[in-house]
Design brief:
mainly beta; 2 domains; two-stranded antiparallel ribbon; 2 helices; globular
Length: 127
């Protein structure tokens, strides 16, 4: 999997960290209105989607209720971390991050610690 990701142009750094986990740095440049799905639209881990009002919604995976129930039945866990850095001057419309950038938004990122399949991390921004 690591080799496949490294061959994609948008994947700048891919490192296996053990226990089925990868640390991935993706840098994607796109056209206005273009949606982006990490890994794919059908198997997305997170997405960047244009909304009708011109804002962007960045959101993490949210499995269906059926899949969440199946994961709980077998005792499976879902965990991870999502960090989103926004450009200076972007307006944050709404978010549910557990941590925000500090020192007037100059340092850090919006961060979600995902420890449950019910997590629904998202941020809506206007550029």
């Amino acid at each position: 999997m690591e080799g496949q990701m490294k061959s994609e142009n948008d994947y700048k750094k891919v490192r296996y960290t053990g226990n089925g986990r990868y640390k991935v740095f993706v840098e994607k440049k796109g056209l206005p209105g273009e949606n982006y799905y990490f890994m794919s639209k059908d198997a997305k881990i997170f997405s960047v989607e244009s909304l009708n009002n011109g804002s962007l919604k960045i959101s993490g995976i949210r499995p269906s209720d059926e899949i969440i129930e199946q994961l709980r039945t077998i005792g499976a866990k879902m965990s991870g971390k999502l960090n989103v850095s926004v450009p200076w001057g972007a307006k944050i419309v709404q978010h549910n991050a557990q941590r925000e950038p500090f020192f007037f938004g100059l340092f850090g990122a919006y961060t979600w610690e995902i420890n449950d399949p019910d997590a629904d991390p998202f941020i809506v921004i206007e550029l």
